Amino acid sequence: MTTLNHTGISHTVFCLLGIPRLEDQHMWISIPFFVSYVIALLGNSLLIFIILTKRSLREPMYLFICMLAGADIVLSTCTVPQALAIFWFHAGEISLNCCIIQLFFIHSTFISESGVLLVIAFDRFIAICYPLRYTTILTHALIGKIGVTIFLRSYGTISPIIFLLKRLTFCQNNIMPHTFCEHIGLAKYACNDIRVNIWYGFSILMLTVVLDVVLIFVSYVLILRAVFHMPSLDARYKALNTCGSHICIIILFYGPGIFTILAQRFGRHIPPHIHILLANVCMLASPMLNPIIYGIKTKQIQEQLVHILFVKQKPL
Question: What is the radius of gyration, based on Cα positions, of the chain?
């Protein structure tokens, strides 16, 4: 479990405990985790299948929803199977390299999803403020470039974290009271100075997720300004209704994260297991509920879903 180097002992294997103080409840806690993961996996896979197989859903908004669904599958798969292994089999042992790989995909996918939400806000802005130019602005070529940019931004900004962690010597405790690995949660077990890790993590958060939130807010201010200048009440309702599902997704994605940050900053008396549960809610809530919200709020997706699930094919 350890290796020797010039600074002493460095752990190469860590043990994830799951949710501290609730070890005897792990089997019960695993039930909502498992159900949420199955819903997320099936719901987002079905959403991707519907969008990619129906020519009528090849519009920019649906392609962005498809990207979001893909990110949701990756995000939930990076965390939930590991948590279930801990809950069911007490299989919390994880190597340093696997831990770094896990946190790399968790953080990069989170940034990717934030980027997709920003792009969807931009899509709604173009659709409402410049409806006649919508298809000429958001071409399939531009959508492809946007997808590549989101991918490069997320993986490019998180990649340096691998080297920042690999330089550290983990000579402190190797028992981690969590269900998955994350950057600072792992770095704090190092004997080295981790100020570079802290400041780099903070800078990435500000330049990606926080910047995305600001730009989403600005886009919706401009959207509301355009909507309330529309002469028809019916036109206003239709314009706002097209944004309804996206606003729900934004609240679901950023809400738990903001609440978790506030709890960690000001909730010093909150038990550790509450912080761990909140962190898992961040990983589970959005992937599970996103396909449900889009299935309910988006008429075209709803119609295709009903057709696939309930409409029987005519006999030959």
Answer: 22
